[in-house]
Amino acid sequence: MVFVAPGAEVSPAASVGEGTKVWHLAQVREEARIGSDCIIGRGAYIGTGVVMGDHCKVQNAALVYEPARLGHGVFVGPAVVFTNDTYPRAVNPDGSLKSASDWEPVGVTVDDGASIGARAVCVAPVRIGRWATVAAGAVVTKDVPDYALVAGVPARRVGWVGPAGVPLTEADGVWTCPATGRRFEQDGETLRELDA
């Protein structure tokens, strides 16, 4: 069963999976496809045609503009913004108001298990890799590798994280998750799990 709180707005043309909860003042637009067992927080906005996998959490006041694509188990923190216009302008060079046909939306892609911290801004087009973590307040302007921990303005890799979200520790060229014991090997700016 889908739960839609009083005051939330879910378009009849949207698809919302079983067990998903849409909280007060949230808006889910036309053609959005939301997976099962997701949480859309108070005042969050899910744009037209956005696709979200199962078990995602979009926290209060997050703005997920189309054509964003979120994998399974993605966390989007409070007040996060996913942009969709490379060259934003309200008007054309002749002064006329821009319409939908005057620009081409570009999206943010977030792969399975990744987390975007509170008030981060992801400037499309960018891809956030699997299990990556974007720190609160970061501004992401380029792709983030799988397992990367990025922070700052603009965001830069400051470490690695595993699926548990805990920063990995390095010894003798092997990165280990202190929470799970899973081991990883770094090759340049990529990380791969050992024994996977």
TrEMBL record:
Keyword line: Acyltransferase, Transferase
Single GO MF annotation: acyltransferase activity
Keyword NAD: no
One Pfam family here: Hexapep
InterPro entries from the UniProt entry: Hexapep, Trans_hexapeptide_repeat, Trimer_LpxA-like_sf
PANTHER family per record: ACETYLTRANSFERASE, ACYL-[ACYL-CARRIER-PROTEIN]--UDP-N-ACETYLGLUCOSAMINE O-ACYLTRANSFERASE
Protein name: Acyltransferase
